[in-house]
Amino acid sequence: MSGDRITFGIKGLDEMLSGGLIPGTVASVIGQYGCGKTNFALYFLWSGLLNGENVIHITLEERTGRIEYYMRDKGWDITPYLGKSLTIVNLDPSDFNLAINSVKNELPELIKRTGAHRVTIDPVSLFEDLFDDDATRRREMMRFLDRLRDLNCTSLLTSEADKENEFSSRYNLIEYLSDTVILLRYARGDSVSDIHLAIEVVKMRMSGHSREVKPYEILKESMIVYTEANVF
Question: What number of other Cβ atoms are within 10 A of residue 112's Cβ?
Fold first, then answer.
């Protein structure tokens, strides 16, 4: 934590966020496949662990063992944290009743029990898929995010971008309900091979933030946002 901010620990990104996320808020990372949404979530968790915080990662796509593998592959020694300050939970979104109950009821209790400071859900899009209509989806997601805020944890949700609009989430909803929205996308130049990853902080309630689009890079053991560079 830097002052009263919750840091990502990603060079350049915290600078764009005026030092990091505001404690107790909900942030969303929206992006297309391959943009590194899960990477952002894991760096957010690792930064918390290094700060002595308790963290929870909810995965709706990957097995728990795969998440542990990804973290170790970055050179992180997570062994001292597993089952203590680091909790990884896999949910099966195909079982409607189980998934709904787990996210709405069991997750808040888990946050209370572990005293989690940071919570990530990857991807929240699969939870949104469970609802049949837009009105129910909006109502339930609004209640869920408000519950997270009431638990005094700082939450990060990843969301798949809409197939037809890379600037929007699948249901064009989570960006309105979140306090902070970080957009990831591909930026293509004139050349076919001239492709970069670009990041933009499009929204941050209660705080100033960078409104520039910046290139970023995913390396084996680090992520870097190049705040001094332009995309093209």
Answer: 12
